Amino acid sequence: MVACVALRVSLGATDSSYLVTVAPYMLVSAGVPVAVLFGTLRHRTPHRAGWFLLAVAQVLYAVADGMTVRDDWLGDFLEPTPADLVYFGSYLLLSAAVLVFIRRRTPGWDIPSGIDALVVSISAGLLTWIYVLQPLTSDSELPLNAKLTQSAYPVLDLMMLILAIRLVMGTGTRGPVLWLLLGSLTVMFGVDTAYAVEGIADGGSVEAAYLDALWMMSLGLLGAAALHPGVRRFAQRSDTALPDASPGRLGVLAVAVLMAPGVQFIQWLRGEPISVPLVSAACAVMFLLVLARMYGLVTAQRRAAVTDSLTGLHTRRYFTHALAVECRRATRSGHGVGLLIIDVDHFKKVNDGYGHPAGDQVLREVARRLAAGSRAGGVTARYGGEEFVVLAPHTGPDELYALAERLREEMAGLPVDIGGELLSVTVSIGAAAAVHPDPESLLHDADEALYAAKAAGRNRAILSGPVSLG
């Protein structure tokens, strides 16, 4: 890339033909999709969908570059050209690739970070339109379709840059790959804006060596990102559930929201025309987006308060409240309530022999099987450590014992994968059922039954009360 940039700039200062001077640029443009595909295959990237989309996007980009070179060489074209349509298609695929990276690295962040990015993009787009594109488009003699076409590129680049910022704002792995991608999209935004400004101001197409050099740098950074060994870890899934309201994040949103009224005030001070409908619409949209973001933060905090971060089940606090509510409801209506307390057998040996990450994987798998095997309308929660509870409303002793046995068999019937090694995991279950139940008594009876199951040799379910089964 560096060699081709130097060659392109050098040839631009000579009397060489157009096709000769543009050849280094086309070499980089055509080489980037090859580099992306080669890097993806060579480093055996575990999650390849995003990189394959990126390669296809760059193929389209190279094709569009070739079409543009042909149009410039012939010197007779009217925007938008077929090449512009192909460029727009490459932007769509590139956006899809970045979204795949975002969803893989930080699952569950799509709506929150999307709202943040949209607030910032509306603010930045407003600034770009008022201070760059609108003055130029109003003075330029270009036809309207050409103005819109040239203005579309910085807008699309801005959207891409916002997606890249979403990558940075996520909690996935940092490193050269991330910064190379961000650098590529940042340079592309800058050079496309410069191209649009010059093209609209001059009233025609722009042929400048420095623009080609910057485009080549952007493409080269993208290819370097795919060739870097860090692509193997780039799409690793993050365990962070949702983005929090950090001071930095709130500061960025505050500046973005205040930008629209600030621009209006500056225009008034300068005596410039104020686009009241545009600024008012931007303020209204950003206000609604901030409200949506606040609602999402409150909902996330409420969910986090009742959700165990490791297993995704309900917390002990939530279960205690649900048990009390269900017992009061059962006392009024006279229906039965069942309770299971499940303990993972010899869990300490798992941690000591295989490490805490393996223990965490066992707990997650046990939680998954409990949630999948429990009855609809019940509550499954992590009670503490390696203990879980299942609250089963409208359940009698026989049904409860059948549920306990089914869950126990599902645990013992299939080993747990702990990083390539299969580990046999069993559970002991204490069950208690009652009509007109008392929460403390129900918990006590189930706990006594669990103690009996452990004393009897583990990997079994025992029902408390006069109908104890072993």
From TrEMBL:
Record-linked CDD domains: GGDEF (cd01949)
Alphabetized PANTHER family for the sequence: DIGUANYLATE CYCLASE DGCM-RELATED, REGULATORY COMPONENTS OF SENSORY TRANSDUCTION SYSTEM
Protein name: GGDEF domain-containing protein
GGDEF domain location: 335-466
Cross-referenced SUPFAM superfamilies: Nucleotide cyclase
Transmembrane segments: 22-41, 48-64, 84-102, 114-132, 152-169, 176-197, 209-229, 250-268, 274-295
Organism per entry: Actinoplanes flavus
Entry keywords, A to Z: Membrane, Transmembrane, Transmembrane helix
Listed InterPro entries: Diguanylate_Cyclase, GGDEF_dom, Nucleotide_cyclase, Rev_trsase/Diguanyl_cyclase
A UniProt-annotated Pfam family: GGDEF
PROSITE patterns: GGDEF (PS50887)
Signal sequence, start to end: none
